[in-house]
Amino acid sequence: MLNRKIALKDEANSGPFVKTGQRYFIRLNKNERAQHIILVICFIVLAVTGFMVKIPEEIVQRFGTSGTAVFYFRGLLHRMAGTIMILVCAYHGCYLLLAPAGRRYLIDMFPKPRDLKDMIFNIFYYLGFKKEPPEFDRFSYKQKIEYFALIAGSTLMSLSGLLLWTEYRWSKFILDIAKIVHGMEAILACLAIIVWHLYEVHLRPHKFPIDNLWITGVIDEEEMKAEHPLHYKRIMDDPELRKIYILGGDQEEVNTPTARQVTMADLPRVS
Amino acid sequence: MIQGRAPVRFISLRILKSVILTVGWLILTAAISAAESEVIPDTENCLLCHRYPYMGRFDKAGQKRIFYVNEKMFANSVHGRLRCKNCHVGLDTIPHTDVKKVDCSTKCHIKEPSTDREFSHINMVEKYQASVHGQGNGKKPKPFSEDLPTCKSCHNNPMYGSPGGMWGKSEALMNETLARCLGCHTKQQWAEKFFSHFTRRMRQRRSQTEIVALCTGCHENREKMARHGLENIATYKDTFHWTQVKFGFENAPGCISCHVPVGYTTHDIRPRTDPVSPINLANRVNTCSNQGGLQTCHPGATAAFATGRVHAYGAKAQMMAASEDVDTENQDMSLVHQRAHADITAQETYHYKILELIRLFYKVLIGGTIGFMCFHQMLDYLRTRKKHK
Q1: Chain A interface, mutation test: which of B238, B279, B380, B386, most A Cβ atoms within 10 Å?
Q2: Rounded Cα distance, A191 and B370, in Å
Q3: Given an 8 Å threshold on Cβ–Cβ distance, is A63 in contact with B248?
Q4: Is the ipTM of this complex over 0.85?
């Protein structure tokens, strides 16, 4: 009964994104999307409340007497968001190791020598030296760079943040290092997110104004062929992968007019 | 006759009325001025001249001097019960060529109730002269002693205000407390003054931002600080302590939170090397952890934490790290350099170098990474747009 309710809700939500008679490929399952959304909220809160300490004196003075409250809630929110983000990262670690979907994610995400070649050839393609871009697997080198930058960044930020939070236990030298790392890493993370990630999902000409993938978790066949051709081939060649990555399972007759309507309810649950 | 006399009587009545009114007015104003003169007993008649708001002149240094005294404001000030000559000694001739500079250690003829002796600020002045800011004990004048702050550098003659900020800023509570005093001490003016005198000491009157601004008045001046072998306040403004003060956070640590914690006095700030100083390494744990006052900073501070460098590394650490190539020709900076050897230990120099290295690493990393990303995305944009046209 409950499942049915959730399914109905999903159908209602997926309305504008999923069309009848088309094959959709799952890029992010529900669990991964939930992790992403929590991470987005935490990241924004952390960035805003974190960079608030750098507001110049002249502007801070305009807060007047509310400065105390502003500073108090700034610190509180920053710590709360930081804690949630650390928990999400820890959960993600467990997910990678324990859930089958997570393990597949980890294997597909793992850097390979091919990625370096892809990057060089892709830049050649941008510069016009090559006619076609390299064929990407489930995750392109761009996504891998971003993912590992996120892992490195959040590890350093969590560690330095926790050191600064429990400042009275550590020597001042360690705290000085933590302070520099926390500040510099924050600048790096925010700029990287703006230049690399926000461009990728918002500003690329055919994605503008926003790529809906983070809500729906799926992309259509055309986009799949264009952006992840290698993964597409792998899925189409393997019946097991078809079951996992094609929305609504493997439907041979999907391109015929009698195709069943695929809905958000067809998204795989975390197993 | 009767007809002729009537207007005369009428006129005399009018005169009489005017006289009565005038006398009444004079009595009334006299009474008011008598009442006011109770506020300030201007027996020296200084206000004869000094009540005029535009009274003043430019002194030899070209500085504007204002000699106007606002009677009511002065009466409401902390020195409102004193006579002019109690502090401004001399003043026997006009123009006042014989006046001496105000000396706060002068006895001011008010009885100090605990000893019943004439009051003076001599205790504070003596402590202050022995402190890092004072002129010393008179044996050997300090170099550049004109830079050192005097009483008036920090103190003006402040007004008594309502004790807002205390007891949750409740005016009502203040009124109730004062009413209790008035039960026994029937002379209201005295009771109010005493109440203000007492409650004024129950709270920190200046906010941390104001305290930092006060100290910054001198400590921000790079040349002045260099003359005394000190770095300027930028080393403080690079700390999270200052960030808190900047926001006006109540528990924020300003200058005096560490340099004058509970049990110390602002007039007796000592250099770091003095064993009495709260920032001496031996006293640091106590300073950082529990000060026993209203502020709670780092209650569980460990020795490793508390003995670290609080202000950020500045010019001195830079000099120590650069060691050989220092501009020692500049005499002022050479004193800073000289002091740097004593202030910055070899370990701190090493730490500073590592921190600078990390900073440099990040600068290169950020520049390189973001530069590459911008380049990559720009190419992507151009190519994708071309493809989708």
Answers
A1: B380
A2: 7
A3: yes
A4: no
